[in-house]
Amino acid sequence: MFGKTTKLLVAAALVTGMGTSAMAKKVYKWKLATTWGPTLSPFIDAPKNLAKIVEEMSDGRLIIRVDAANKHKSPLGVLDMVKGGQYEMAHTASYYWKGKDINLLPFTTMPFGMTAPEQYSWFYYGGGMELMEKAYKRHRILSYPGGNSGNQMGGWFRKEINSLDDLKGLKMRIPGFAGEVLAKLGVQVTNIAPGELYTALERGTIDSLEWVSPSMDIKMGFHKIAPYYYTGWHEPATELQYLVNQKALKKLPKDLQEILIIAMRVTAYDMYIQNYHMNATAWEEMKKEYPNIKVKTLPKSVMDAMKKANKELRAEMSEKSPELKEILNSQDAYLKRVRAWTEMSDYLYLKDNL
Fold first, then answer.
1. What's the rounded Cα separation, in Å, for the pair 24 and 112?
2. CA-CA 20 to 30 A from 243: which of 9, 34, 49, 170?
3. Is 173 annotated as a binding residue?
């Protein structure tokens, strides 16, 4: 009758309600490293909220110190820090580890893949959690969904894209697998540090860039320079991840383990809805201040070419890794299963009511 999450919540509440009289109040102190800076909302908010919830639910028995990237100085080193035990936890994204372990790539998002609700459904009811546990096991780490940005925008462009020819030689900042797709079509892909992006776009060092979506783009000011804002295709459901050291988790009492797992799930969903609200608010402000922003969708010829390149690259990667092939096949099969309902419930509703 009750789902697994409900049972865990009830169990944790009962255990926590016993108070310190039922068990010795031993305090466990953990450290969590983030890939994000201290002001990068809503990404940084998820682990901060996690620490608050865990401390309250555990009656102060589990304290988590959150260290942003400016403190530990290694934003893309958090996987190794958790693996090595310097930190018990991290908050990051799996596609950053493509160079270390290609099998971790799909647990964030894939071009032309699932939307956030579809992907959450795959994680918790379609076998995704089991595949993620298998992939991270060799790193002695457990991974849990850590918050979703939803469908990210395709980027800011100084010039309109009307054909494939407009992509050839285009200088664009776009990282990860999407960058490989565009590079295959002639785009000069580059990766520039976040603090240098505005200047690079303003001075013409790059012609376009992808960042996130209105909630985070507005702080960067790209809309003041590039008037064309293209819709997304590359990151339809960017899921962040909590990484947890396996040994550290096992050392916690069972009730604290359950509290931590519940808190991760709650804060992940909260980040998703927080970001949705922030996107709506930021876009409202952008449109008001810069009414000449043009929201565009890439032409069908370009989209078809990107889908073809994406398919070819996925096939090449899958040949090299049977485990990656298993994960991608699982996602593809689940997408095929749920997309019909997404179309019925969301697409047709929006189509008839916009």
1. 51
2. 9
3. yes
Q: What letter represents residue 37's amino acid?
A: G
CA neighbours within 13 Å on the CB side: how many for 140? 12
55 marked as part of a ligand binding site = no
- Collapsing DSSP to helix, strand or coil, 232 comes out as coil
Average confidence (pLDDT) over 152-167: 97
Which residue is it, tokens 């971790």?
A: 104
Kindly list the structural domains of the chain, giving each domain's residue range(s) and its CATH number in brackets, ordered by start.
Answer: 4-149+236-277 (3.40.190.170)
Q: For residue 97, which of 32, 43, 176, 211 has the smallest C-alpha distance?
A: 176
Q: What is the distance between the alpha carbons of residues 179 and 143, in angstroms, rounded to a whole number? A: 25
Q: Is 158 annotated as a binding residue?
A: no
CA separation for the pair 271, 289 (Å, rounded): 26
Annotated binding-site residue? 211: yes
Per-residue pLDDT for 22 more than 50? no
Give the residue-averaged pLDDT of 125-131. Answer: 98
Give the pLDDT band (50/70/90) at residue 23: low
* Section 81-97 average pLDDT: 97
Residues 40-65 have a mean pLDDT of: 97
